[in-house]
Amino acid sequence: MFKILHWIVVSRSQVLVELLAGHWPQEFLVKLTQVNPDAICEHVKDNHASMVVIDLATVELQKAYQFQRLLAREHPSVRVVYLHFPKQVDARFLMRATTTAGVFYLEAGLAEISLGLSNILRGHRVFPIQLINGVNDDFGLFEDTEPLTIREREVLQALLTGSTNLDIANQLFVSESTIKTHLYRVFRKIGVSSRGQAIAWAQTHLHDVLV
Q1: In whole angstroms, what separates CA 41 from the centre of its chain?
Q2: Coarse DSSP helix, strand, coil percentages of the chain, rounded to the nearest 5 percent
Q3: Measured distance CA(204)–CA(179) in Å, rounded
Q4: What's the pLDDT tens digit per position in 148-180?
Q5: Other CB atoms within 10 Å distance of the CB of residue 81
Q6: pTM, whole model, 2 decimals?
């Protein structure tokens, strides 16, 4: 018998919550509860949630920080995912190695977020590659996450053209087994398990990767 998970969505946006409620309960077997940002601290005490999704488009950064600290102290098993994470403001202070499971920028679509949540449920943490490559990791967030190498990015780019492993090997003047090794490392780093998922990830992220 499947266990129904409980996730809390912290947002002032009824439209966002209704959009998520139309997809996530069936996709992930979860019960969603919307909580107003002004009531989040009290609400978590009365609910056994496994994940809290915080909409930073409607939650003040300072309030999100206070809530993250509360969770880390009193509910360390609860994972936190941020939607609409700002690019123009340094909000890394919100991220904690013990509780932060995922970060999605404003432009992340529902399909990308759903793919990320699937990986989080498999035990991964999901962060934008440009955030991983562009920060000094003062918080110990990325000790188990490695940036993609230039060659790995080349392999991903070749995947987008529909090339086979042999095609990619010929393009890059290496053996087919070397390409398989590169793909294994890429899949592990970006948290996917199939060629199709890697292509979907690359379509969203590859153009943003910093070289």
Answers
A1: 23
A2: 50, 15, 35
A3: 22
A4: 788 888 898 898 888 899 999 999 999 999 999
A5: 23
A6: 0.65
